[in-house]
Amino acid sequence: MKRRGEWASAFIFLLPLLFTLAVAFLYAFIRTVYFSFTDYNLFRITKFVGFGNYVHLFSDYRFVLALTHSLLYAGIVTATQTFLALLLALVLNQKIRGLTFFRASYYVPSVASSVAITLIFIWLVNRRGAINWLLTQIGHYWPLILVGLGVVILAQWVQVLVERRHGLPVRIMDPAILGISLLTGTVASIVLGHFGVIRTYPMHEVMIPWLTTRQTVLGIPLPLLSIMMLNIWTTTPTMMILFLAGLQDVPQELYEVADLDGASPWQKLRYVTVPAIRPVMFLVITLGLIGTIQMFDQAAITAGVAPLESVITLAYYTYWAVFGSGGLPKVGMAS
């Protein structure tokens, strides 16, 4: 009797959630399946068409494009953002100066609205936008940039060696020291360029049509590739926070034992860190796949300037079938 009462109590507490799921998901799913076998369009009397919608769907080249784009998008974006998020989390999990600032600054892209970010992105990648301007400047000043990078690397190594000689356990990529090195490299490049010690080369203005083109890169439309880069930049910080939480839960005793066994940093990462955060990695990959398959807003916004065939995904194809294909809404097809 006691066990039966516990089951009854649990069911009563779960009943609101189960009712919400049944109404919001189960009922909606059943209605969607029903509509997929009809010619429902919001206005005319619904007629049963059998598998006609499915035959039309798989014979529509736009659907094939949308499916291909969604699979490419999900695979590339999820893999890249998972790798970058883990890399950033490993860096920010160290005991370094300015850690709070770097954690907050890396997370900023995930805070802003995706619509606002996408609109800014469209402005950045137009033919005379900031991205093409930056590429033009890089092509013009590449000798100074190479010299500046060389000075940064040299200054970084010198500072690390000096700090370690004083007995301080400084890492090679310590952000505070890296900031000084970047400042030194920048000043050196400006001075050398100002006095003509290093020459620059004139270059024609770069005008890459990032969105307004049907060109492909490795079989991927350039507009879709641009959206991939935008999505990676905006979603990686969220995944980084998840990895960071997982890394902080790894027992330090495991690393101490690995140090006693003489394990290298790579071996500790492979045999200690990765197995310990495997559940978090599974969560990150799952969330990444779900988010990329459902991606709609960025494709919908960029479709105003990009060719439809270059940015269409499954989610946007559903919207296009109902509202954007002309004529009556094809709700049956969208279902």
Q: SS-based structural class? A: mainly alpha
The succession of helices and strands, N to C, reads HHHHHHHEEHHHHHHHH
Main sheet specs: 2 strands, antiparallel
Give me the CATH architecture of the largest domain, please.
Orthogonal Bundle
Q: What is the CA-CA span between the terminal residues?
A: 47 Å
Number of domains: 2
Look at the structure and give the CATH class of the largest domain. Mainly Alpha
CATH homology superfamily of the largest domain: MetI-like
Low-confidence stretches are none
The third-level CATH topology of the largest domain is MetI-like fold
- The largest beta-sheet arranges its strands as 1-2
Average residue-wise pLDDT: 79
Q: What is the alpha-carbon Rg in Å?
A: 27 Å
State the gist of this model:
With 335 residues, the protein is mostly helical. The protein has 15 helices and two strands. A two-stranded antiparallel sheet has the order 1-2.
